[in-house]
Amino acid sequence: MTQPDAADLQVRIELAAKTAHVPGLAFAVSLTGEMVSAATGVVNIETGVEVLPDSLFQIGSITKSHTATLAMQAAEDGLIDIDAPVSQYIPIQLGRGPEAGPFTARQLMAHISGLDGDLFIDTGRDDDALARLMVLCKDLDFLTAPGRYYSYSSAGYAILGRMLEVVYGQSYEQILKDRLLDPIEATRSTCFAENAAFCRTSVGHEVDEDGKARVVSLTLLPRAMGAAGLSLFSTVEELIAYANVHIFGHDVLNRASAEAMRAVQTELPDGSEWGLGWKAIRNGGTRFVGHDGGTIGQAAALWFVPEHELAIAMCANGGDTQHAWQDLAYPIFQEVCGGVPEPDIPEPVKNVADLSRYVGVYDNIGVTMHVTAESDRLKVVAKSKFFGFDDVVFPLHPIGEGRFRCELYGNDKIVNAFFDPDEQGRPALFYAGRLHRRVDGAVV
């Protein structure tokens, strides 16, 4: 395949954005190091300012891969040992509970530290915001013992960011700018909304079922969780430049470290894998590497295939971003790689054994899950504890022993699982990449 034609790409993204009711979208593809980009729509429906390929969007948890890259830099420089206890660098209590134990930077990067994760607490806008958050991390529960199971932990990445602050003696944002963004000429990217305000910057939108959009009310998110993805604004073109560091190598990260970041550290219930800061999915004989991100009303995706020297990035500000991504990126991945970054998930099965054993209330720091049984499936009501999100209600369709499939936000291949029973024989619920412990035997 040759590089996509710019005019054809423009037509395609305009159609994809219209079909998915996305107010504004930017998209970029790099093949063998040559990039083409395009954009459509507006950064804000109230101002009508158009999106350009260099427009800034919040990229959410893609930032976790940046933080992992910085940690690997620090390891290259001999400043940290990613297999040493984190307490060696942050000598305070982090986490509590019967499963508490020493954990490492490697485990934080791979989301296998066992720590609960969604600690979205605002500790201020000053340079000590991350240090202040560490005091609150002492009350985080260990959902499982370190190294035992995968459970996505944003708090874990905040701890990783604080480790970097300790060894470099600078704020996380300054480390990111000096050691990664500036060297790869990602000069528009910034962690500060105060800086983004001087650029063509997107805001988030909520879009109803009829395609009518409105600007969301919350854009400024807690600085303390910046290393986990709540702060960084970037462009699709600068995301491609960053991905190419991991494909081709760069002075900021040697090839051995880049390859180590892609190596399998743990597997998930849907068959996908997690490395150090990157997720990986095998499909069609190809291993796709990347990360998705989302904030309130904004979404981003960055996926690449090193052996094909292919990288694709998308940023969008509302609407059905999942389908827009699939419409734009999947045909390119299919043509170049013979597959797409999507796990092969079994179809639902009938006549499953008694589902009542799964009925109950499941909880972690971010979400409470109420699970009931309905004939051949389960019903879940998910109640978020942050940002005032509405309850999410969805069915779980069984696909095997303890494994269920559901559809959320346009993705119908999400796998949830029940496993790791407690001393009373009650399993934990793995949902949205996170463990939730059973807290009651029946819905209340």
Strand order of the largest sheet: 2-1-12-11-10-9-8-7
Largest sheet: 8 strands, antiparallel
CATH architecture of the largest domain: 3-Layer(aba) Sandwich
Count of alpha and pi helical runs: 10
Corresponding CATH superfamily of the largest domain: DD-peptidase/beta-lactamase superfamily
Can you tell me the overall shape? globular
The Cα radius of gyration reads 21 Å
Could you report the average pLDDT, rounded to the nearest whole number? 94
- The amount of helix comes to 10-25%
Reported by name, the CATH topology of the largest domain is Beta-lactamase
Structural class: alpha+beta
In short:
With 444 residues, the protein is α+β, with helices and mostly antiparallel strands. The protein is built from ten helices and 20 strands.
Description of the structure:
The chain folds into 2 domains: 344 residues, Beta-lactamase; 85 residues, Pab87 octamerisation domain (Lipocalin). By secondary structure, the protein is α+β, with helices and mostly antiparallel strands. 25% of the residues lie in helices and 25% in strands. The N and C termini lie far apart (56 Å). The model has no long low-confidence stretch (mean pLDDT 94). The protein is globular. α1 runs antiparallel to α10 and α4 crosses α5.
What keyword list fits this structure?
Lipocalin; 444 residues; Beta-lactamase; eight-stranded antiparallel barrel
